[in-house]
Amino acid sequence: MLENFLIGSGFAFAAALQPGPLQAFLVSRVASTGWKRTLPACLAPPIGDVPIAVLVLLVLGRLSPTVQHLLRVGGGVLLLYFAYGALRQWRNPAALDMRRSAPRTLFDAVLVNLLNPNPYLGWTLVLGPAAVSAWRAHPSHAFVLVGAFYGTLVVMLALFIFLVGTVRFLGSRGQRALLGISSLALAGIGLYLLIAGVRGLGAA
């Protein structure tokens, strides 16, 4: 169960630190209305991901174990790719720019999340296969995994909103530090999923 908690919370921690459409929305929203009014937007992922999760899990549950192991390998490779991207941004912080125009309501934040490809990739290649595997061990393990992911994600996004509104996202040094941590977290989880998937294929 601890393993599922660490996978869920670690993936959420890394995902929350990656510059993307939702983070750009949050930065723009804080700039226009302040961090307190923006805080509810941190609930956008658990609300918007419900149809994505249901669709992916219904499909994954019908796939053979071999295909699920292949998806796990794909998820590991994807996270390693994201880790490499975060490392490149860490080495070149001048390339970061998240200040874009964005919608202004929680509903629009959910739409931003639904139109963002990252939740689909995350559920298809990382969370979905991990949740199915955890469910087969015991249903409570799957609940721990998903709960740890969204609990950590909401907390991290709330902290992100607060930092953007109070200390301008910690400045360039703080942002680089978070990117470095994110890169390490993504690489660690990616290697774990890659190894687990390869072992599963070998045992199949």
Query: Alpha-carbon distance between the termini?
Result: 23 Å
What is the molecular shape? globular
Largest sheet: none
Which whole number gives the mean pLDDT?
78
Low-confidence stretches: 97-104
What is the number of strand segments? 0
Radius of gyration over C-alpha positions, nearest whole angstrom: 17 Å
Q: Give the domain tally.
A: 1
**Which band does the percent of strand residues land in?**
under 5%
Count of individual helical segments:
9
**Global structural class:** mainly alpha
Tell me roughly what share of residues is in helical segments. over 70%
- Secondary-structure element order, N to C: HHHHHHHHH
Task: Give an overview of the whole structure.
It is globular, with a radius of gyration of 17 Å. Helix content is 83%, strand content 0%. The protein is mainly alpha-helical and 204 residues long. It has one domain. It starts with a helix and ends with a helix.
Short description:
With 204 residues, the protein is mainly α. It has helices at 2-17, 21-33, 35-38, 44-60, 65-91, 106-114, 117-137, 139-167, 171-203.
Question: Any chance you could write out the topology, listing elements then pairs?
Answer:
Layout: H1 2-17, H2 21-33, H3 35-38, H4 44-60, H5 65-91, H6 106-114, H7 117-137, H8 139-167, H9 171-203
